[in-house]
Amino acid sequence: MRKINEECGVFGIIDDSLQPCVHIAATALLALQHRGQEGAGIAYFADPDERDSIACRKNVGLVSEIFDREYLETAPHTKVACGHVRYSTTGGNTVENTQPIVTHHSRLTFAVCHNGNITNADELRSYMVNERGAVFYTTNDTEIISKIIIDRIIKTGSLEQSVIDLIKTLKGAFSLVIMTKDKLIAARDPNGFRPLSIGKLGTSTVVASETCAFDSIGATYVRDVEPGEVCVFPLGGKSKSFHIEKGKRSLCVFELIYFARPDSFIDGMSVYKARLEMGRALARQCPTEADIVCGVPESGFDAAYGYSMQSGLPYGMAFVRNRYVGRSFILPTQKGRTRAVGLKLNPLRASIEGKRVILVDDSIVRGTTCAKIIRSLRDAGAKEVHMRISSPPFIAPCYFGTDIDSKENLIANKYSVDEICRQIGADSLVYLDINELTAIKRGRDIEYCTGCFTNNSPIDVSRARKKDKFD
Predict the structure, then answer these.
(1) Quick check: is 452 catalytic?
(2) How does pLDDT run across 246-285, given as a tens digit for each residue?
(3) Of the listed 8, 212, 231, 398, which one is catalytic?
(4) Do 26 and 164 lie in a common domain?
(5) Is 0.85 topped by the overall pTM?
(6) Structural domain includes residue 449
């Protein structure tokens, strides 16, 4: 149960009048911090009358570390801003690779924020270098997006047409926020792998990866950006949208299983209610005699509550989480690292001692952490531990911006469910059936990407490369 991560959250704001856009963006990024904890940045036009006056503050670290009170109190009011929080898997976590990516060109000065993964990035980078003479300064996909926009602007003279051409050129997952001195553009790939929503904050238009960002700033949700849609919000003008031909609608189902905050709505669906339903489905799928239902903090809480509601078994706590063991907590020895699990999650003996426990979590990746957690429950006196997972087994890597491991490191590719159960030390193990998972849409016009569970991707990934990092 090493946590799967997803690599980024984006935000944008535009208003005809001067607003504290940097402060608003920083607040929204704090709400999106769960989508990326390794870097953050905000770009804005410090002088709305100067086309080249774009300013960008970004760094590795958390939003609160980069945008402290002193900085926010002195940040100028502006009419447009965009921001980003970043997650990378291994390597590449540098200031240069942190977004937004700002481009100064004689035709246009702009900033780009990107959530997702471009599967034809290597091909496009090679083309831009060898055929168009482009020079790259980062190793992320977002700079490729910037270079293509400039290349198309030179040819078409239109930013809107350049972004439309860009959407037709890119393959893979991409939710984009593009900012110029007088425009904010939001765009989503034709399959809609990653979420992107539009909201209103007074007279301001805002866009964000998740609606929880709107709640944090007092904005009202308006609608989602549709798959294959380009939305243009100009200063002093009426917004426009362009619809590119849609692909197979394929929202990453793991957004609902784990990535998104439970207080968000994605494509019209409550993330919290989706997770409750996953737990309910698990209880229906395999009724089990037990005394208590518990979730692994915090990824299993909602599904565990749904399991409790459906089964009638009491819901309780199995662990106390130490909130002061941070993301950078590193121990020098393997023995020390093994003990770190106990430092982060300590069993609540008074709740589980002598009881048959249903333990719910969202996934099992390698199984090593899961085994340690189950062992700790037994050491604390649990009579039985029945593991329930609110997703099917992972059997394939993801090419669309999720750091699901390579096939050889996925435990479900090596062992049967019964063998995994024995390895992790559980009394029983049940994964959520794939049909039960996809049924949570309940008549909504939405389909899911389940490639990590089925090895069937909605688009061709035969030429895609599983990267060491996502940008």
Answers:
(1) no
(2) 778 899 999 999 999 999 999 999 999 999 999 999 999 9
(3) 8
(4) yes
(5) yes
(6) yes
